[in-house]
From TrEMBL:
<keyword id="KW-0812">Transmembrane</keyword>
<feature type="DNA-binding region" description="H-T-H motif">
    <location>
        <begin position="26"/>
        <end position="45"/>
    </location>
</feature>
<keyword id="KW-0472">Membrane</keyword>
<dbReference type="InterPro" id="IPR050109">
    <property type="entry name" value="HTH-type_TetR-like_transc_reg"/>
</dbReference>
<feature type="transmembrane region" description="Helical">
    <location>
        <begin position="147"/>
        <end position="170"/>
    </location>
</feature>
<keyword id="KW-0238">DNA-binding</keyword>
<keyword id="KW-1133">Transmembrane helix</keyword>
<dbReference type="Pfam" id="PF00440">
    <property type="entry name" value="TetR_N"/>
</dbReference>
<dbReference type="InterPro" id="IPR009057">
    <property type="entry name" value="Homeodomain-like_sf"/>
</dbReference>
<dbReference type="Pfam" id="PF17932">
    <property type="entry name" value="TetR_C_24"/>
</dbReference>
<dbReference type="InterPro" id="IPR036271">
    <property type="entry name" value="Tet_transcr_reg_TetR-rel_C_sf"/>
</dbReference>
<dbReference type="InterPro" id="IPR041490">
    <property type="entry name" value="KstR2_TetR_C"/>
</dbReference>
<feature type="domain" description="HTH tetR-type">
    <location>
        <begin position="3"/>
        <end position="63"/>
    </location>
</feature>
<dbReference type="InterPro" id="IPR023772">
    <property type="entry name" value="DNA-bd_HTH_TetR-type_CS"/>
</dbReference>
<dbReference type="InterPro" id="IPR001647">
    <property type="entry name" value="HTH_TetR"/>
</dbReference>
<protein>
    <submittedName>
        <fullName>TetR/AcrR family transcriptional regulator</fullName>
    </submittedName>
</protein>
Length: 190
């Protein structure tokens, strides 16, 4: 299949899953939106579930690679964590439909949840390593790094989804300022 057809199918699937949700979306809908035969989609993906998981995996990989490409070894842990927060917020703003799919549909069946956790885990490991580095250098408090990474990912993700599904404008700078404050100092004024 030519790259252009792959891109059309990919974008059509994102659009349809975002608009209709996984359960109501059909391969016919995706084929019609991509302007390709349904058989073309089935040639590459055995099922709607396989296509959906492929989209999620590609999106998470794009997020992880985007963040990794900007992290420099010489950056201090605080700066690294700020960069992660900023880049995740930017990514969700840039790929709004993907964000909606990822977060709204992640509560699907048990098999889908297991696959999602596996895919997201690769990104959360990146956050976890920065937290461990910060703890090792005495910059961050001692916490369970895995839970802290999940908390940071979740906090940013749910806040972004709340804005994207609501009516407020997606102001990346305001969201970054608030999420950075929550990640580094919490709600307390002391």
């Amino acid at each position: 299949m030519r790259k252009s057809k792959t891109s059309l199918i990919f974008q059509a699937a994102i659009d349809i899953f975002s608009e209709k949700g996984f359960d109501k979306a059909t391969m016919d809908d995706i084929a019609a939106r991509a302007n390709v035969a349904k058989g073309t989609i089935y040639y590459h993906f055995k099922s709607k579930e396989e296509l959906f998981l492929f989209l999620v995996e590609e999106g998470i990989e794009l997020l992880r690679e985007g963040v990794e490409s900007k992290l420099l070894p010489e950056m201090p842990p605080r700066e690294k964590l700020e960069l992660i927060v900023r880049e995740q917020i930017h990514f969700f703003g840039q790929y709004r439909d993907f964000c909606v799919i990822l977060l709204r549909e992640s509560w699907g069946g048990e098999d889908r949840q297991r696959e999602f956790r596996k895919m997201i885990r690769s990104y959360m490991l990146l956050i976890e390593e920065v937290i461990k580095e910060g703890m090792d250098t005495g910059v961050f408090q001692r916490v369970n790094a895995e839970y802290a990474a999940a908390g940071i990912f979740g906090m940013i993700s749910i806040a972004a989804l709340h804005i994207l599904l609501g009516h407020a404008p997606y102001d990346e700078e305001v969201l970054f300022t608030d999420m950075k404050r929550m990640a580094f100092t919490g709600l307390l004024t002391e």
